[in-house]
Structure prediction request, 251 residues.
Amino acid sequence: MAHWQNVHIKNARGQRLAALSLHSEQSSRGWVIVCHGFTGSKEGGGKYIELAETLFSQTGFSFILFDFAGNGQSEGRFKDLTLTNQIQDLSGVIDWSQEREQGPVVTMGRSFGGSTVLAQATADSRVQAVCTWAAPVHLTKLFSEVIVSENDDGQVVLANENGTVHLKKDFMDDLTRHNLLQAAANISPRPLLIVHGQRDDVVPVNDAKELYAAAAEPKELHIVPQGDHQFSTTSKRVWEVVGKWLNTLDI
Prediction:
């Protein structure tokens, strides 16, 4: 019987990332590493815990949930967040998983976490399959539309569903360094699953279609009817899709 373990994982910048591991050395098929969205946390309000426990029992994969630096219980300042830093954080979690027990790695991310898994996998052959939920493709455009102001101290203020957040201007500059459509093309021959809500009013569903068009086989696209950006009422449907996909992986 596997149980959740609280662990701390060092990233490349020496910060401790708070993580939860659900692992069975006896029967694990490998690791699924779950990345939360912008301003999110590893638990996802409890949904990621339930997701991992459900899919652990159905698929035999072990799971790692973690907070990116500056989020949740991890060290760091949120205002220092960049996509490049999140890529480093995810790479550090993969390092930890392989030190714990070597095996196939599947990365899965929602929203900005989905952008992160795409960008990270393009340069990391240890990742053997990728899954995105509601992942934005045109990052500069998306975040430019929610900039409220730019401060004289080198910060930008962004609006989100919980109010406003402050980030360094480096955040916007860093986004221009990442081409997510090219990243999607680089995933092949590794499997890619793209999930998006039909009624997502934050990230247009067309982003998922563009990702799918850019990627090579093997790839799957699932547009979830009634699904919003959070998959508020359709999360169980998403879990079914992901569980079925995980069980078909030959990695």
In short: The longest helix spans residues 83-100. The first strand starts at residue 4 and ends at 10. The radius of gyration is 17 Å. The CA atoms of residues 19 and 66 lie 4 Å apart.
